[in-house]
Amino acid sequence: MSQARSYAAHAADQPLAPYTFERREPRADDVAIEILYCGVCHSDLHYAQNDWGATEYPIVPGHEIVGRVTAVGSDVSQFRIGDVVGVGCMVDSCRHCHPCEDGHEQYCLNGFTPTYGAPDRQDGVFTQGGYSDKIVVNEHFVLRMPEGIDLASAAPILCAGITTYSPLKHYGVKAGDKVGVIGMGGLGHMGVKLAKALGAEVTVFTRSEAKIEEARRHGAHHVVVSTDEAQMAAVAETYDFMLDTVPVQHDINPYLAALKYDGTHILVGLLEPIEPAVQAFNLVFKRRVLAGSLIGGIEETQELLDFCAEHDIRCDVEMIDIQDINTAFERMQKSDVRYRFVIDMASLKA
Fold this sequence. Notes:
Layout: E1 2-8, E2 17-23, E3 30-40, H1 42-48, E4 65-72, E5 84-87, E6 90-92, H2 98-101, E7 113-114, E8 134-138, E9 143-144, H3 151-154, H4 160-170, E10 178-182, H5 186-197, E11 201-206, H6 212-217, E12 222-225, H7 229-234, E13 239-244, H8 253-257, E14 259-267, H9 280-284, E15 289-292, H10 298-311, E16 317-321, H11 325-333, E17 340-344
Parallel strand pairs: 10-11, 10-13, 11-12, 13-14, 14-15, 16-17
Antiparallel strand pairs: 1-2, 3-4, 3-8, 3-17, 4-5, 5-9, 6-7
């Protein structure tokens, strides 16, 4: 065992604070990693505040990790000391069910092991995440950072990026398709960049006129203000796909009406019940599909990292020190970030 320094939540109503805990020594198939950068996801905030009712304290959040290999187990073949690597939202799965064998570990029938907040499959110790100076992960769940990629802005690709890329690839978005991206946050701005790089004609749907120029700066071909009924009526039955990144309850019926027949509306942000109710007419009479998507598997996430390096796609980030994490959480609650906080973990040494 080795001591790790971190920031952890100790209770739902308390700020994150310094915390020292034990990391396991690498098993035969493990990779030990010094963490250089860690993205701050809205899920971290939810988990720290026990919004989903499953948090066991203390909890060290963080599942958008970029670091450098410091040690490898005796059976590790893919990585060497000094390699720059990443770790995303999961660190294990059963690896023998059909989804795992198909390379979709995120849909493991026995449940994947998240990077923080779940018992390790072998020793039962709860996993702790990337707001720390080090982590130990099975090599199957470690990703290679391609040469030339910007490491700090690559961290959120491991969650925000793959959450938007996976459904775009799965549902076959291709050159010439018309894609609507609903929302312009951490997920939405990555969805715009990735859909455009895949050759799609991209429209951002936003409730705020203030985001029109911002959406265009990120590469959107068109912007629709969704609160303007005339603008929404003008795009009825226009789109092949809707990538819905909004994480709170919202009326999806107007967006369904903007799909062509056989169009697909993909939820990647909302985990709550859909309110108001979906009007089945919007689905049945145009053979539209209402779908959902999680993150991607390890192979697909590596594919995305390579794709981003090839196309120079970066997440827009604001760098912070770990000592500012509670302020960052407060700002996230107010949507005051463009578009992802990333912690420079060198600050933990201070």
